[in-house]
């Protein structure tokens, strides 16, 4: 009897705890400390159900119903979630506040057989104690419009990928893939490459000149003749202009225009602008940016007994800021920089608009947590990204930069030069967040009717340049500007087109490969809508309408698939098989003596025996630097590429010698400690450094 009572009391005790399910262990750890012992917070480790990998998994004959299965390897996690849910007093689903998070909550709810009418969905834009506790006071039901929007995207991507990819496998080679957003991204890169190939440079000239007044020199540039702008197309045009000048005579100042220019701060970051700024300023890949941002959002232990989310949710298209955050920033700016730097006056007390806002920009959860104060708790990458986010947010709430500008017209014999000067009058937001060059360019105190003397003129020939290849930042900007994809899709998209070896990154710019051009040509010809920017943007708009409850997801998918299916059937018949012919490598196999050939693999080209599969000898294609290996001295240092296409340096005798370095050895030793020196790429150029100490020297040209 006593044993029976003990069993019942244990059951009652276990049922008093509430279960909270999030995606990641770090998020679970942070939230668990805020909610206390009456809650148990566990992680689903991302999605628990998805479409099968081995087949389409979409029933096109029955309203495109997806066939969801438990993800392989998630069995123990699902089993544990079911056990925890069975013993819990209540279950809350607290995945991220976006389509993907809503879909995860819905899948978990289905697996645990929770009541769909139950208010068990909890969302928060920032992982702070107040925000988390407040959100649990206002649970809601799962938003099926968000789920349907995510489901429509997943089904569309599966229909495209699993329809086009088999054609590429049959006609080109196995292992290739196609997708809605990745095909557009690849097409943009190839279009830009074609522009570069077809570009014809045009000659043009400029005339820069130095003038002096009262021993103060200043620079000016040729503008035109008789008040009209003149383009100098060749040296004859230049000589004609210079022939009108009397170098010994004075030049007249005919106009002086002084203005005050206001340079406005940029808004806080959205996902896309954060990815672009991190790429340009920090040289972060898009995936690296999102990984570091996720860590900052989910919680960092700052030594006060509990981890705290340092930034708001990092997947957002909005630049809106909650009023509480605005006024906290204003107070901080008043206290630390002065009232003249604050764009708004601080307001005491809590305002109507709450700190939680599912459509806020990316900002620090507390502006008082400065990057300097947080640095000791963060990794180097986390600190750099947090500093960028914090600075941009604070700057967005500051006053404009004021610049005094001065433009001057300098004329002699109807030939006009112009000079422009500027001086920062008030730094404003640039006190916190710098944007490009901000150096003063001062002119002498010139007035109308002043006379100045020509010191020298410097005609220069130029040629127009082709458009630059896309960097990650530029490609993300173009995709976003055209409404293609969503910020959360950019990182996996750029990763995919590189893993498939459709493009390679050279000096931070994307170049298409031969394989990428073949795949693009097939898709462009057979499936023109897939690479059509406007068409893909329209699909994204339809997904937004599903999210807003304005359209049915099945109708949107059907509208896309009906014409697409006809194109797939036509492509099966019309696309000819393309043979990727192997090139002779110019050397013989060191195992069987047969000629070696250059083959195309998943990570690029490599050497292979022409007798494959009878002989499976392969070698990486490497570039020999001719520098002796610093470790063994017997081999030479060769340039290799990692699976992610990043260049590194190793010994030609690998695996007998395991020497590796990300930076290129230069064949000399450090004069301080004898360690080998390397050539390191920095923002300002290259520099010779000692990896083992602080020795540095400039690169010798």
What would you say this structure looks like, in words?
The protein is an alpha+beta fold. It has five domains: 13-142, Rossmann fold (3-Layer(aba) Sandwich), CATH 3.40.50.140; 154-198 and 471-574, Topoisomerase I, domain 2 (Orthogonal Bundle); 207-265 and 405-461, Topoisomerase I, domain 3, CATH 2.70.20; 271-396, Topoisomerase I, domain 4 (Orthogonal Bundle), CATH 1.10.290; 583-698, no CATH class. Helices cover 35% and strands 24% of the residues. It contains 18 helices and 30 strands. The protein has a six-stranded antiparallel beta barrel with strand order 8-9-15-14-11-16. A four-stranded antiparallel β-sheet has the order 19-20-21-22, with no helix packed on it. A hairpin with a 5-residue loop joins strand 24 (636-641) and strand 25. Helix 4 (99-111) crosses helix 6 and helix 7 crosses helix 16 (514-526). The N and C termini lie far apart (91 Å). Residues 1-13 and 347-358 have low confidence and may be disordered.
């Amino acid at each position: 009897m006593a044993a029976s009572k003990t069993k019942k009391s244990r059951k009652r005790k276990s049922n008093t705890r509430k279960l909270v399910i999030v995606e990641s262990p770090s998020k679970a750890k942070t939230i668990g400390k805020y909610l206390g012992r009456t809650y148990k917070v566990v992680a689903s480790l991302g999605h628990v159900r998805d479409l099968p990998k081995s087949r389409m998994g979409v029933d096109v004959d029955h309203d495109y119903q997806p066939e969801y299965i438990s993800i392989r390897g998630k069995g123990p996690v699902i089993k544990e979630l079911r056990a925890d849910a069975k013993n819990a007093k209540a279950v809350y689903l607290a995945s991220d506040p976006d389509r993907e998070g809503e879909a995860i909550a819905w899948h978990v709810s289905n697996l645990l057989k929770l009541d769909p009418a139950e208010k068990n969905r909890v969302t928060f834009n920032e992982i702070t104690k107040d925000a988390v506790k407040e959100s649990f006071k206002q649970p809601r039901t799962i938003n099926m419009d968000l789920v349907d929007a995510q489901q429509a995207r997943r089904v569309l991507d599966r229909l495209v990928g699993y329809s086009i990819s088999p054609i590429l496998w049959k006609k080109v080679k196995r292992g290739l893939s196609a997708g809605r957003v990745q095909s557009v991204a690849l097409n943009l890169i190839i279009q830009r490459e074609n522009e570069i190939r077809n570009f014809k440079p045009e000659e043009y000239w400029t005339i820069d000149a130095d003038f002096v007044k009262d021993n103060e020199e200043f620079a000016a540039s040729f503008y035109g003749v008789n008040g009209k702008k003149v383009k100098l197309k060749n040296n004859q045009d230049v000589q004609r202009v210079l022939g009108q000048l009397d170098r010994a005579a004075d030049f007249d100042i005919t106009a002086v225009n002084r203005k005050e220019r206001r340079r406005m701060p940029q808004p806080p970051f959205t996902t896309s602008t954060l990815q672009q700024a991190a790429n340009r300023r920090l040289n972060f890949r898009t995936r690296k940016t999102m990984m570091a941002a996720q860590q900052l959002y989910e919680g960092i232990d700052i030594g006060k007994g509990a981890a705290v989310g340092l930034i708001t949710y990092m997947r957002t298209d909005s630049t809106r800021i909650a009023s509480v955050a605005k006024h906290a920033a204003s107070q901080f700016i008043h206290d630390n920089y002065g009232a003249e730097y604050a764009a708004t006056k601080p307001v005491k007390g809590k305002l109507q608009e709450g700190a939680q806002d599912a459509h806020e920009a990316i900002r620090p959860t507390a502006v008082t947590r400065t990057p300097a104060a947080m640095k000791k708790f963060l990794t180097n990458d986390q600190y750099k990204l947090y500093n960028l986010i914090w600075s941009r947010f604070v700057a967005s709430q500051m006053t404009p930069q004021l610049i005094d500008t001065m433009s001057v017209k300098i004329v002699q014999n109807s030939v006009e030069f112009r000079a422009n000067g500027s001086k920062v009058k008030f730094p404003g937001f640039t006190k916190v967040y710098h944007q490009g060059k901000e150096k003063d360019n001062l002119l002498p105190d010139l007035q109308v009717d002043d006379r100045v003397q020509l010191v020298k003129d410097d005609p220069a020939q130029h040629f127009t340049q082709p458009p630059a290849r896309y960097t990650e930042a530029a490609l993300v900007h173009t995709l976003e500007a055209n409404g293609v994809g969503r910020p959360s899709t950019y990182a996996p998209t750029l990763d995919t087109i590189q893993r498939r070896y459709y493009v390679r990154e050279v000096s931070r710019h994307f170049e298409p490969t031969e394989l990428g051009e073949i795949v693009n040509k097939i898709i462009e010809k057979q499936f023109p809508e897939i690479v059509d920017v406007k068409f893909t943007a329209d699909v994204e708009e339809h997904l937004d309408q599903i999210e807003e409850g304005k359209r049915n997801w099945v109708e949107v998918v059907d509208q896309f698939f009906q014409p697409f299916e006809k194109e797939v059937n036509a492509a099966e018949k019309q696309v000819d098989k393309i043979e990727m012919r192997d090139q002779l490598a110019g050397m013989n196999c060191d195992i069987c003596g047969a000629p070696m050939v250059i083959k195309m693999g998943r990570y690029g080209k490599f050497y292979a025996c022409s007798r494959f599969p009878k002989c499976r000898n392969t070698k990486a294609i490497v570039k020999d630097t001719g520098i002796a290996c610093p470790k063994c001295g017997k081999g030479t240092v060769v340039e290799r590429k990692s699976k992610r296409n990043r260049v590194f340096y190793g010994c030609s005798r690998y695996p007998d010698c395991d020497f590796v370095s990300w930076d290129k050895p230069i064949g000399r030793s450090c004069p301080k400690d004898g360690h080998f020196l390397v050539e390191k790429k920095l923002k300002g150029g290259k520099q010779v450094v000692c990896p083992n100490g602080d020795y540095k020297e400039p690169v010798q040209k």
